[in-house]
Amino acid sequence: MARTGRQGRQIRKVMILEDEQDILHIYKDYLSAKGHSVIVTSTTANEAMDDYEKYRPDFVIIDYKLPGKKNGLEAAKEILMSYPSGRILMLTAFHGVKDELKKDFFFDDKMIQILIKPVKLARLADIIIRN
């Protein structure tokens, strides 16, 4: 659950699944500087559910293309099947992922958004605060 920090701003526990270490550290450093508690987990979608259950984040950022047998959208679906009120932001460089999301009716009433890379860090932080 989010808690309130200085100036009444919510501090959220954010879990990030990203396999590119440079990008991962940029996201982590930026969001930490904004006052979020950032959890860096495994870099495969296969362990996303285990990590979610272990850390119980308020918000999850998942890269669409991760090593392993699942993509980020499949990992998000697995999380949302067990935790329907979960909040997920999918990051991808593939525009077709938006169409893939729209075709799957499972996601219709879920808190999931997609941002196309490159992502502006301020936009990333804004989405976390607003959701």
CATH-defined architecture: 3-Layer(aba) Sandwich
Instruction: Estimate what percentage of residues fall within beta strands.
Output: 15-25%
Could you name the CATH homologous superfamily? Response regulator
Biggest β-sheet strands, sense, barrel: 5 strands, parallel
| H/E element order | EEEHEHEHEHEH
The total strand number stands at 7
Poorly predicted runs are 1-9
Distance between the termini: 12 Å
Categorize the overall geometry.
globular
User: Would you tell me the overall average pLDDT?
Assistant: 90
Backbone CA Rg: 14 Å
- Relative helix content: 25-40%
Side by side, the strands of the main sheet go: 4-3-5-6-7
CATH class: Alpha Beta
Helix/strand-derived category reads: alpha/beta
What name is given to the CATH topology?
Rossmann fold
- Count of all domains: 1
Number of helices: 5
Please describe the structure with a list of short key phrases separated by commas or semicolons.
Rossmann fold, alpha/beta, 131 residues, disordered N terminus, globular, 23% strand, 5 helices, single chain
